[in-house]
Design a protein that fits this description.
The protein is of the alpha/beta class and 432 residues long. The protein has 14 helices and 14 strands.
Length: 432
């Protein structure tokens, strides 16, 4: 599928070859270019024959450049193609549980393998074909897979997709061809936990060392579940049993492969009221983005930064707002900071999630509306610290479309967003 070129970067190899904006890219070294993966893979070489159409005529240009130098072409969209949507209707799908009236992009379910390679997204494999897998193997691309269960019948049931079970064969094919995979399991009580979890982890272990890591996270349930599959949250006792199962596999894998392979999300430990593992138990934090090790990473980094901090700090009062899950940690860290710097007063506020429902406890799903209503009239001091995950990645906008400016005006306080990193949080607390 030829792709229209929307821009040619100045002084790039393509610019020197007189390829123009508005031309159509057809092939590189005889390989048809359908999307960004084709473009990135085939344009990486040092000598290229680029076939393109200019004003209705086909041209072929020989371009010589350094290996992996950017060819210099830009297209209408990053993928050069439409984003692939999800073909499943998973019983635990968070998007199906969202309230109406939110911005349209939040309701799009992507299941695009290209975004797995390029941005780390997790895919279910259900909308992939043998041809797609062949291309992945040819390009030596690693992938992140939402597995959930390796029981084919159960996977079909959980995903409401009759092909979901047979697509598990792709895991074995990719492993046999030397590709690496990170995996994710969304755990639902009474469905894929218990002995089913044992089965899934045993099956994934059989693909070692090609399985780099596995995250096990509890299902997230909002209050908007009318007409959906009946699910519930984990009890503290169930969370503890889940941790025990995972830690048994960790011990076995560490002895056999030198890596624990599987990791439980922080939510399981907090719900079970268990101490989180030490930092070394998280290895290189391979499942950080899945909420595995965030608490330990911030806790240890903050205490290290606090110990090494030797600066003059003026008296001040500030505040912090976070979700229910992180509140105990933030309360502890604020207390440590005030012990060292008694001239600083830090008020820590727990925001209950009424927007999605009180069972949603992560900071990343706290809305501005809940924060404004619960902090109105509270002592906030000269600044209010919030986790950066409350905001869009590229805009100062909350999930409910209020902006940082809206919140600052409503609460009459300056908002500072902080990373999940100890030094950054400490400086936001004490610096000017």
């Amino acid at each position: 599928m030829p792709v229209e070129i929307t821009n040619v970067l100045k002084h790039s190899p393509a610019h020197r070859a007189r390829i123009k904006s508005g031309d159509t890219l057809i092939s590189i070294n005889g390989n048809k270019i359908n999307d960004v993966l084709d473009y990135m893979y085939y344009s990486a070489y040092d000598k290229l024959e680029v076939e393109h159409e200019h004003k209705g005529k086909i041209h072929k240009k020989i371009i010589v450049k350094s290996d992996y130098d950017d060819l210099g072409l830009e297209f209408k969209s990053f993928l050069m193609d439409d984003k692939m949507s999800c073909h499943n209707k998973c019983v635990f799908c968070f998007i199906d549980q969202m309230p109406p009236g939110m911005r349209e992009t939040l309701y799009f379910k992507d299941d695009d393998a290209r975004l797995s390679f390029l941005q780390g997204n997790y895919v279910t494999l259900t909308n992939m074909s043998d041809k797609d897998i062949d291309r992945i193997i040819k390009m030596r691309l690693n992938i992140n897979v939402s597995v959930h269960t390796t029981n084919p019948e159960l996977r079909c049931k959980m995903m409401n997709n009759r092909f979901a079970g047979e697509k598990l064969n792709y895991l074995k094919i990719m492993a046999e061809n030397g590709l690496s995979m990170n995996c994710q399991i969304v755990l639902c009580p009474g469905l894929n936990d218990g002995e089913e979890l044992d089965r899934t982890l045993n099956d994934l272990e059989s693909l070692m060392p090609n399985i780099q890591s596995v995250a096990v996270v509890p299902v997230g349930l909002t209050k908007f579940r009318e007409g959906l599959f009946p699910l519930r949250t984990f009890t503290p006792e169930e969370s503890a049993k889940t941790i025990d199962r995972i830690e048994r596999v960790q011990k076995r894998c560490l002895e056999k492969y030198g890596t624990r392979m599987v990791f439980a999300s922080d939510e399981f430990y907090i719900n079970a009221k268990r101490e989180l593992p030490e930092a070394e138990s998280y290895e290189d934090y391979p499942q950080y983005e899945n909420g595995v090790g965030l608490v330990r990473y911030l806790h240890d980094g903050f205490l290290k930064a606090l110990e090494e901090c030797d600066v003059e700090v003026r008296p001040k009062e500030i505040s912090m707002a976070t979700g229910r899950l992180a509140y105990p940690l933030m309360k502890t860290l604020a207390g440590k900071a005030m012990e060292k710097f008694p001239q600083v007063k830090i008020n820590v506020y727990e925001i209950i999630n009424y927007y999605f429902g009180e069972t949603i406890t992560v900071a990343g799903l706290v809305t501005a509306g809940d924060m404004m209503s619960q902090l109105k009239g509270k002592t906030l001091g000269e600044r209010l610290l919030i986790p950066k995950v409350m905001l869009k990645a590229d805009e100062p906008v909350f999930l409910d479309d209020y902006t940082v400016d809206d919140v600052e005006k409503a609460l009459d306080v300056r908002l500072i967003s902080t990373e999940n990193e100890g030094q950054n949080l400490l400086m936001a607390m004490i610096s000017d």
